Amino acid sequence: MSNSPPHQLINFCALLSEINDLQSQIKEAATCEQIIAIAASNGYEISYKELRTWSKELMAPYFPWAEKGNEWRRDFFS
């Protein structure tokens, strides 16, 4: 695994930081597949493994696992 997130994930997160409507969609996602689908619908290819691997670094308040702890985040991806 590389030491930095893939460009598609970085670029998707940059887009998220600018668009409140997308932030709301991400916050309401009940599964990682929904987040991947939102990314895809906006032109970004993100894999389950990439999202799971880097989720601990994605701590913006609109990520479903934000402020819920590592165990909750792991359960989200199981």
Question: What does this 3D model show about the protein?
Answer:
The model has no long low-confidence stretch (mean pLDDT 94). The longest helix has 12 residues, at 7-18. It is built from five helices and no strands. It has 78 residues and is mostly helical. The two termini are 20 Å apart. 59% of the residues lie in helices and 0% in strands.
Number of domains: 1
The largest sheet, given as strand count, sense and whether it forms a barrel, is: none
Overall pLDDT confidence: 94
Provide a count of the helices: 5
Portion of residues within helices: 55-70%
What are the low-pLDDT stretches, counting only 5+ consecutive residues below 50?
Answer: none
Sum up the overall morphology in one term.
globular
Structural class: mainly alpha
Cα separation of the termini: 20 Å
Question: How big a fraction of the residues is strand?
Answer: under 5%
Give the C-alpha Rg. Answer: 11 Å
Secondary-structure element order, N to C:
HHHHH
Keywords, separated by commas or semicolons:
78 residues; globular; single chain; mainly alpha
Short description:
By secondary structure, the chain is mainly alpha-helical. It is 59% helix and 0% strand. The protein contains five helices and no strands.
